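This part of the workshop introduces the protein records we will be handling. Getting from the letters to the C-alpha cells is the skill we practise here. An example says more than a description, so a record of this kind follows:
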Amino acid sequence: PDQIRRQTRRVLNESASSTSASPAGAQPGGRPAGNNPKTPLVDQLASDLTAKAEEKKLDPVIGRQMEIERVIQILARRTKNNPALIGEPGVGKTAIVEGLAQRIVDGDVPAPLMNKRLLQLDVGSLVAGTMYRGQFEERLKRIIDELKQSGAILFIDEVHMLVGAGAAGSSVDAANILKPALSRGELQVIGATTLDEYRKHIESDAALERRFQPVQVDEPSEDETIEILKGIRSAYEEHHHLVISDDALKAAAHLSTRYVTDRFLPDKAIDLIDESSSRVRMYKSPAAKQAKDLFSQLRQARQNRSLANEEGNTEDVREWEERELDLSQQIERLRTGWDRANSPVVSAEDIAEVVSMWTGVPLMQLTEEESHRLLKMEEELRKAIVGQEDAIIAISRAVRRARAGLKNPKRPIGSFMFLGPTGVGKTELTKALARFMFGSEDAAVMLDMSEFMERHTASRLVGAPPGYVGYEDAGQLTEALRRRPYSIVVFDEIEKAHPEVHNMLLQIMEEGHLSDAKGHKVDFRNAIIVMTSNIGADVIKRQSNLGFALKRDEETEEKLSYEDMRKKLSESLKRAFRPEFINRVDAVVIFRSLNKDDIRKIVSLELDKVSERLKDHDLHLIPGEEALALLAEQGYDSEFGARPLRRVIQLKVEDPLSDRLLSGEFVDGDTVTVKVDDDGDIALEKSAETVAEPSL
C-alpha cells in the first residue's frame, strides 16, 4: 500500500508539474478554489473542509488514527459507504472529520478518496427559506444531483436532525429523500451524532440505520488528552499572544477530569485552556494592567473636563482636553505594541483559578498542599466541636485515608455513620466538615429520612419513573448533586428510611454514582456521605453519665466502658441494617453525651460568636468565669444536649444587649462585661477596661 501511495503521489505531482497553465484559482490536488461550477447550490449552503485544510485553518488532529482509518475503510466500500460517528458531546467527532480532510489534502488516503472534496452541511441552512410546499424537496434533490456529479463527500453534523427535517403535512422528510441515494452508494455522507440521539432517531428507523455504518468514538484518556492539548497549544498561544506551560496542560486534563464531571474530554480541557488563557491575557499581562490604568485615568479626565466646562473655566477645560489627548495617544501606542509585549505564561494556578470559578470549589483546596491541610484537620474541627474527640479523630483519619489514595477512587470521599443522642454535635460536625472540605456550610445537602419511609417516596430521590406524575421533575438528591457535586449529603435518621433508600446508598457508597430517572449518571466521587441515627442513644447516655463521673485514676476503666458501649452499638446496628450496608461505611462515629464541662466550653464558643457579631457596632464583649459557669448550668440538659444553651444565651445575653443598644446605653467603642449580679443572675455591665489591639 505504501508503494502504491508513493506512485500515485508521483503521478499526481508529474501531471501537476507538466501542466504549464493551470486554471485561474485552482488549488493543489485539482480542487477548484472558491465555488465549483458543478456544485453551485452546495457551495452556497456548505463549507469546504478540504479547502480549509489547504489554507491551514483547521487545528491539528492528534491521535484518533484508528477512527480515521475506520472512516476511510467505510468510505472506500462499494455500497452503504456512509460512516456515522457516534459518541458523547465533546469527545472529538468533528475533529475526526477534520483529520480526514487534512489527510485528503496530504494525499495520505487510498486512491478512491484522492482528490475528493469534503463539504460540511448544516441541516438548519438546508431547511432555511423553504416556505412553500415542494421547495425543500426540490432543493434537496438539486443537492443530491450536484454531489453525484462532483463526487464530493458530505459531512452532516447532528445527522439525526435529518429525521423530520423539512416535513410539513404529508411532505417527505430529508432522511427518506436521501435513503435511495445512500443505499446505492451514489451519495457519500459522513454523519455525527450522540449515542442517545442515534438510538432515538436513527435506530428507530431500520431502513435508515442499515444505510449508515456506526463508528464508536470513545472519550480519550487523561494522557491522550494531554497529547491533544500539546498538539493544539500553538494555535491558542498565537490567538491569545501568550505562552501555555506544560504544567497548565497537565492541570487542565487532570482538574477537568476530577471536577468537571458533566462534560467530556478533550472538550472540557480545551475550554479550560482557552478560558484560562483569556483570563491571563486580560488581567495578568503587564500591557493589560497598564491599559486598565490608562483607561481609568482617561475616564477621570473626561469627568473633570465636563465639570470644568459646566463651571465655565476655559483654562481648566483646555488642560483636561490636552490630558485626554495625551492619554489617548498612550493607549494607542500601547495597542500598537500589544503583540510585542512580553508574553505572560499560563500556569497550573491559573487553570485552578478558572476551575474554581466553574465549579465553586474553593481555590485554596486546589492550589494549597492538601496534605498540610489534612494534617491540621483535627485542629480545625476542634474549634467548632466540643467533647467529641473520638468522632473528630475517626472523621479525620477516614478523610486522610481517602485523600491519600488508599481507597477505591470510584467511591465517595468518605461514608460515615453518626450515632448519638440529640444535641451532642452531629449537625455541627457536619457543618464544620463542610467548611473544612468545601469552604462553605451551604455545601451540605440535608435529607430528612422520615419523609422517605414508604416505598413510593424513595423515587423522589432520583425522580419519578416514566409514565408517572412528576417524571419531568428532577430528583431531590440527584439534582442537588448535579448542581453542586462537591458537597456533604446528610441522610438524617437513616433508620427511618425505606429499604429502597438503603439500596440506593449501597450503590453510592460502593460505585460512587447513581442514575436518575432519565438515565443521567450523577457523580458522588467528590461528595461526603453522612448518615445520622439515634440507634443506641440510651446506651450512650448511660455510658456518658457513668464515664464522665470517674476520677482521673480510673481512666482505664472509662476506656473499657467506652469499648463495651461500642460493642453494644455494633449489635444494635446489625439488627437495624444489613451486613453489606454496614461494611460499606468507612467509619461508625459514636458521639458521647455532653457533660457540664463540655457545656461550659460550648458557652465560651457561642459567646465568641456573639462577640464577633458585635464588632459591627465596635463593641467588645468580655464574659466572666462566673457568668460562663452560670450559663453552662442553666443551659445544661442531659436529655436535650446543647440545644437549650442557645435559648439561654439569647434570653440572658442577646436580648438585654439588643435592648440597651437600641436605648443608647451602649454605644460604639464600649466594652461590655458579662457577669453574675448579687441576685445570682446574668448581668451586662459597661466596663472601663479597654481591649488591646492584637499585635501584628
Notes: The first helix runs from residue 2 to 18. Residues 11-34, 546-558, 690-696 have pLDDT under 50 and may be disordered.
